[in-house]
């Protein structure tokens, strides 16, 4: 009964991810929740894992995706382009959040959840690298589905900086990244954005 109660209490805590909103909008104009982001990543994993050049354990990948943002129940979601004190403290806030989560759960479950989160953060295993690529890809896929008016100007350049490195080591992921990028460019052009100017500005920053 003690373990059942601990899991029930943790489910109440984890509901925060359904309430925590990301800097991404849905096609109907509502903001995406962290939980919805994790769900979409999970679906992408199931659809894509068979095409990878290096096999992955899909069950482990899905577990990792489900827990990779649990710390945001404590630390909140922080956009990649934000410049703030909380962004600078993000890593420490999330580590502290995961220790809180470990303490809430039965020992074996807490240890597994934290180990999966640490594996994702380290990005060394095939499963962690795949999950990381999906983490970046889902952001742009969702942005492409939303109205361009929901994008901030800085996000035009993010199209060319956020996904590439995480997808570069796998031909299928690199191809998928290119398709998502092309979709984003089509959306920007249709909205009157000078795509060539955006690419030139990003290239200048990289240089």
Strand and helix map with partners:
Blueprint: H1 2-14, H2 16-19, E1 21-25, E2 31-33, H3 34-48, H4 58-67, H5 72-75, H6 85-88, H7 90-104, H8 107-122, H9 126-145, H10 154-158, H11 164-167, H12 171-190, H13 195-206
Antiparallel strand pairs: 1-2
Mean pLDDT: 94
What is the approximate shape? globular
Q: How far is the first residue's CA from the last residue's CA?
A: 60 Å
Q: Please name the fourth-level CATH homologous superfamily.
A: Hypothetical protein af1432
The count of domains is 1
Largest sheet: 2 strands, antiparallel
CATH architectural arrangement: Orthogonal Bundle
Helix content: 55-70%
CATH C-level class is Mainly Alpha
Number of strands: 2
Q: What is the helix/strand order?
A: HHEEHHHHHHHHHHH
Count the helices. How many? 13
Structural class: mainly alpha
* Strand order, largest beta sheet: 1-2
Strand content: under 5%
Low-pLDDT parts are none
* Rg (C-alpha, Å): 18 Å
């Amino acid at each position: 009964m003690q373990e059942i109660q601990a899991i029930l209490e943790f489910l109440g805590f984890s509901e925060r991810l359904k309430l925590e909103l990301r800097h991404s909008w849905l096609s109907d104009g509502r903001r995406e929740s962290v939980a919805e982001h994790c769900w979409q990543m999970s679906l992408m994993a199931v659809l894509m894992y068979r095409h990878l050049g290096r096999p992955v354990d899909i069950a482990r990948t899905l577990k990792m995706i489900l827990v990779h943002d649990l710390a945001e129940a404590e630390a909140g979601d922080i956009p990649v382009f934000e410049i703030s004190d909380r962004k600078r403290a993000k890593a420490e806030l999330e580590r502290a959040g995961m220790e809180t989560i470990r303490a809430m759960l039965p020992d074996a479950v807490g240890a597994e959840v934290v180990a999966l989160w640490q594996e994702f953060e380290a990005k060394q295993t095939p499963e962690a690298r795949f999950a990381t690529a999906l983490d970046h890809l889902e952001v742009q896929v969702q942005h492409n589905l939303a109205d361009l008016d929901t994008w901030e100007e800085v996000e035009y350049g993010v199209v060319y900086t956020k996904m590439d490195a995480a997808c570069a080591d796998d031909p299928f992921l690199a191809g998928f990244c290119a398709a998502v990028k092309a979709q984003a460019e089509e959306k920007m052009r249709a909205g009157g954005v000078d795509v060539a100017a955006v690419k030139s500005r990003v290239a200048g920053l990289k240089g």
